[in-house]
Amino acid sequence: MKRIGVLTSGGDAPGMNAAIRAVVRKGIFHDIEVYGVIGGYAGLMKGKIEKLELGSVGDIIHRGGTFLYSARSEEFKTKEGQQKGIEQLKKFGIDGLVVIGGDGSYRGAKALTEQGFPCVGVPGTIDNDIPGTEFTIGFDTALNTVIDAIDKIRDTASSHERTFVVEVMGRNAGDIALWAGLAGGAETILIPEDHYDMTDIANRLKKGHERGKKHSIIVVAEGVVSGYEFAKQLKEETDFDTRVTVLGHVQRGGSPTAFDRVLASRLGARAVELLIEGKGGRAVGMEKNQLVDYDIIEALGKEHTLDMNLYKLSQELSI
Ligand code: ADP
């Protein structure tokens, strides 16, 4: 392996820059040339590829987003699109590719690997929904953004004795909602991994009010129901003054937390090692604070699982 490429794809996540930096520096440390693909798989098919030097990744470890840009491409889902990408990589003499992204991006990496081009996946998404790793790059930062918002909402909620519904991201995973709800002291957390009972929620809110609670915060994962729809349903059961906040894309931005920077550095560097060891077709992850790697094809066949013990605890602590 003399020359490798790196790209970021799909939804951006804080910490992707730190991961790119790790790939570039680790590669150069091992006398490997590193090329950056601009704009994900769409840029790859067009040959938007440039050499990255040590200095190319200076001053980016603390920046959100991805300086290589990200994109979504329908064309790349076709065999023809993937062949175009491989041709471009070959044109630049690149022997292996690090793909930083979510499960869609992993499918692209899997497709390239199956066609003989070795790729290694690095989990970069705020949703924490990649199987095989306890944490994905960006999750911790998004979580801290949500908690910051919940703390602020709590101030206004208690001043006006209101019920606040906070809708958070996470696609089909409840991780952001669960962790933010637990850390933010929410009364109720709605996750896609469990059904919700509106009568039960309303009764608990009423009980809380009866014992003098000034406000209630309900965290709703976007994969369950929209915050506005939930508030409408709640209104039918109670007469509480309810407000809705949809946090949206603020959850994707911001400077990555120390945790995400360290995670990204470790995972990015490990991805380069795997390519050097000739282990294409793998994905890297972190389990019990240890680096792990596993077959990317196997990973895509598995489901991400939420920590249900944590969910149970959140319910026990919000009685
Ligand atoms: P994420 O990686 O955040 O899950 P997407 O699901 O949008 O984001 O995937 C990012 C890109 O990965 C897509 O736009 C597409 O180019 C590529 N991709 C997704 N699914 C496949 C697939 N089945 N085969 C090849 N490429 C894919």
From TrEMBL:
<comment type="similarity">
    <text>Belongs to the phosphofructokinase type A (PFKA) family. ATP-dependent PFK group I subfamily. Prokaryotic clade 'B1' sub-subfamily.</text>
</comment>
<keyword id="KW-0547">Nucleotide-binding</keyword>
<feature type="domain" description="Phosphofructokinase">
    <location>
        <begin position="3"/>
        <end position="275"/>
    </location>
</feature>
<dbReference type="InterPro" id="IPR022953">
    <property type="entry name" value="ATP_PFK"/>
</dbReference>
<dbReference type="InterPro" id="IPR012003">
    <property type="entry name" value="ATP_PFK_prok-type"/>
</dbReference>
<keyword id="KW-0479">Metal-binding</keyword>
<dbReference type="GO" id="GO:0042802">
    <property type="term" value="F:identical protein binding"/>
</dbReference>
<keyword id="KW-0808">Transferase</keyword>
<dbReference type="GO" id="GO:0016208">
    <property type="term" value="F:AMP binding"/>
</dbReference>
<keyword id="KW-0418">Kinase</keyword>
<dbReference type="GO" id="GO:0046872">
    <property type="term" value="F:metal ion binding"/>
</dbReference>
<feature type="binding site" description="in other chain">
    <location>
        <begin position="185"/>
        <end position="187"/>
    </location>
    <ligand>
        <name>ADP</name>
    </ligand>
</feature>
<dbReference type="InterPro" id="IPR000023">
    <property type="entry name" value="Phosphofructokinase_dom"/>
</dbReference>
<feature type="binding site">
    <location>
        <position position="162"/>
    </location>
    <ligand>
        <name>substrate</name>
    </ligand>
</feature>
<feature type="binding site">
    <location>
        <position position="11"/>
    </location>
    <ligand>
        <name>ATP</name>
    </ligand>
</feature>
<keyword id="KW-0067">ATP-binding</keyword>
<feature type="active site" description="Proton acceptor">
    <location>
        <position position="127"/>
    </location>
</feature>
<keyword id="KW-0460">Magnesium</keyword>
<feature type="binding site" description="in other chain">
    <location>
        <begin position="125"/>
        <end position="127"/>
    </location>
    <ligand>
        <name>substrate</name>
    </ligand>
</feature>
<keyword id="KW-0021">Allosteric enzyme</keyword>
<dbReference type="GO" id="GO:0061621">
    <property type="term" value="P:canonical glycolysis"/>
</dbReference>
<dbReference type="Pfam" id="PF00365">
    <property type="entry name" value="PFK"/>
</dbReference>
<dbReference type="InterPro" id="IPR015912">
    <property type="entry name" value="Phosphofructokinase_CS"/>
</dbReference>
<dbReference type="GO" id="GO:0048029">
    <property type="term" value="F:monosaccharide binding"/>
</dbReference>
<feature type="binding site">
    <location>
        <position position="103"/>
    </location>
    <ligand>
        <name>Mg(2+)</name>
    </ligand>
</feature>
<comment type="function">
    <text>Catalyzes the phosphorylation of D-fructose 6-phosphate to fructose 1,6-bisphosphate by ATP, the first committing step of glycolysis.</text>
</comment>
<dbReference type="InterPro" id="IPR035966">
    <property type="entry name" value="PKF_sf"/>
</dbReference>
<dbReference type="GO" id="GO:0003872">
    <property type="term" value="F:6-phosphofructokinase activity"/>
</dbReference>
<feature type="binding site" description="in other chain">
    <location>
        <begin position="249"/>
        <end position="252"/>
    </location>
    <ligand>
        <name>substrate</name>
    </ligand>
</feature>
<feature type="binding site" description="in other chain">
    <location>
        <begin position="213"/>
        <end position="215"/>
    </location>
    <ligand>
        <name>ADP</name>
    </ligand>
</feature>
<feature type="binding site" description="in other chain">
    <location>
        <begin position="169"/>
        <end position="171"/>
    </location>
    <ligand>
        <name>substrate</name>
    </ligand>
</feature>
<comment type="pathway">
    <text>Carbohydrate degradation; glycolysis; D-glyceraldehyde 3-phosphate and glycerone phosphate from D-glucose: step 3/4.</text>
</comment>
<keyword id="KW-0324">Glycolysis</keyword>
<dbReference type="GO" id="GO:0030388">
    <property type="term" value="P:fructose 1,6-bisphosphate metabolic process"/>
</dbReference>
<dbReference type="GO" id="GO:0070095">
    <property type="term" value="F:fructose-6-phosphate binding"/>
</dbReference>
<dbReference type="GO" id="GO:0005945">
    <property type="term" value="C:6-phosphofructokinase complex"/>
</dbReference>
<feature type="binding site">
    <location>
        <begin position="102"/>
        <end position="105"/>
    </location>
    <ligand>
        <name>ATP</name>
    </ligand>
</feature>
<dbReference type="GO" id="GO:0006002">
    <property type="term" value="P:fructose 6-phosphate metabolic process"/>
</dbReference>
<feature type="binding site" description="in other chain">
    <location>
        <position position="222"/>
    </location>
    <ligand>
        <name>substrate</name>
    </ligand>
</feature>
<dbReference type="GO" id="GO:0005524">
    <property type="term" value="F:ATP binding"/>
</dbReference>
<feature type="binding site">
    <location>
        <begin position="21"/>
        <end position="25"/>
    </location>
    <ligand>
        <name>ADP</name>
    </ligand>
</feature>
<dbReference type="InterPro" id="IPR012828">
    <property type="entry name" value="PFKA_ATP_prok"/>
</dbReference>
